[in-house]
Amino acid sequence: MYTKHQALRARRRLSKLVAAFVLIALLLPAVRGLSQTPPQHFYVGVNFIKVHPGKQEQYRQLVEKYGKKVNEYLFKSQNLMGWYLYQVLMPAGSSTDFDYATVNIAGSLGALLDFPMSTKDIYKKAFPEMTDKMISDVQAQFDECRHIVRREIYSPVEGAHTDDAPNAPPSKYMQVDLMQPAAGKTADYIKMEKETFLPLHKERIKMGILKSWGLYEKILPVDTRMGYEYVTVNFYDDLNKLGDGYAESVKKLFPQKDTTSMFNETMAVRTIVQSGIWKLMSYVDASNMKK
Question: In terms of Cα–Cα distance, which of 159, 246, 177, 178 is closest to 209?
Answer without folding.
Answer: 246
